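Reviewers of the previous submission asked for a worked example of the structure-prediction workflow described in the proposal, so we include one complete record here. The input consisted solely of the amino acid sequence. No template or homolog information was supplied to the procedure at any stage.
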Amino acid sequence: MTHQDTGLDLAPKSPQGQQASYVRSVVKKTAETAPTAVAIVELDGRSWTFADLSEQVARHAAEIPEGARRVAVHAGNDNDSVARICAVWQSGASVVLLGALLPDTEAERRVRETFCDAVLGRQGVSATLAPGQSPAEPDEALVVFTSGTTGRPKGTVLTVDALSRSLQGIALGSGLPKEGRPPADPPRRLSPMFTPMAHMAGMLGVLSGWYVGKPVLIVPKFDAKVALRLVDEFGVNVLRLTPAMVYDLARWPEQRDLGGVRSVTVGTAAIPDATRVEFERRYGLPVLRNYGQTEFSGAIAFERPGDVAAGRRPEGTVGRIAPGVEVRIVSPDGADLGPGELGEIVARGGGSMAGYIGEDGRPISPGPQGWVHTGDLGTLDADGFLFVRGRLREMLICGGFNVYPAVVEAALNKLPGVVDSAVAGAPDERLGEVPVAVVVADDELGPIADLQTALRNELAPYEIPRRIVRVAALPRTENGKVDRPGVLRMVTSGD
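From that input alone, the workflow returned the following structure tokens.
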């Protein structure tokens, strides 16, 4: 059984033409047609028009070597990072996003694996190639690191056309024409961006805000108090949140309402039903689930306000299929499954990836006929509602951040005294999951707390295990693989 939304053609198109050029030239063209329209607002109230931003883009363009085809950008949640990204696109090159919390060693690995010609905004990390040597194709727009289905983070290649089609889908899902709408002067209500710029959700937060004609309000780090202030101060009417953000707002100690907010969406990870219900009871607004992956430059399925208002909301659904996306549920041997049957979610569409970065820096095709295996287990009902039931892959999501056990284990195993290790995700009421670990150690091992301290030099804060337990041997399955549920039992058995 296959389900799709017919609002967009599924087949990728040529990257030539006005539609695809939006991503490359959005700042330059908008500065020409609406120079005084506001592009970006920061928390202190400072704002930049598209003309202001265009000047910043021009300055950063001078930092890009002539002929560069793939440029890594250190992307924080700030106006300057947006300008750097747009400068790379305007130059015709592809952006490789580097997160603000990445250790230098991991940033260097990503620069090497993507064969970058240059690096912007990150001290201590340099490119490995001379300009023009990168294997990036002309239509490549963005490389974002994600898990794929298993293992270490991999570079996901998205084309100009894929991003353009994702923006069209967002516009259609918002009840607007697929072409979006131009900015207004004075500006429409702001589109706040709380998620990190180096994530697909953050990057799309900027582009989609502009695409639907809204200035983007950039927030360096989410804080419930700040978010509530922004709703009042800037008249925010749409909130795009992670489950942890919904949790914080639901538990805010003071009695508040959300003023003119008319839509709350949640993505990046599954939200516990208890958190969603608590938020909805408190604020009287439905939390609309959104299911997507970096590999699709956005949503695969999402809940529609009209469905929720009409009571069409089966328990646990992530909504119906997004425009331009086609979804199947398949068995391990690839056979299509029927309504309600559990299998892997596979999807394709015009916004899907070109592939993962291979050893030569070129994309590895996602699969036959463009179908991408999500690594998630799910079901589809007869009405086209999608349900995500779990994950085939081992990756865990901590507060919206992807944590890869293999990466954490590699860092642990390098520490003095650690012989072997295994990492699992433990349920957390606020963050969804947090990493925990067991280690097999020799006599050189010091206090467990020292391991967590040492990991600060190798891992991002969200990757560091919240609890580490020393064990005699790792739990394993019959075929010799690490038994991750067994890891979790070992960690929690002493509670």
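Residues 10-18 have pLDDT under 50 and may be disordered. We consider this example representative of the routine output the project will generate in years two and three.
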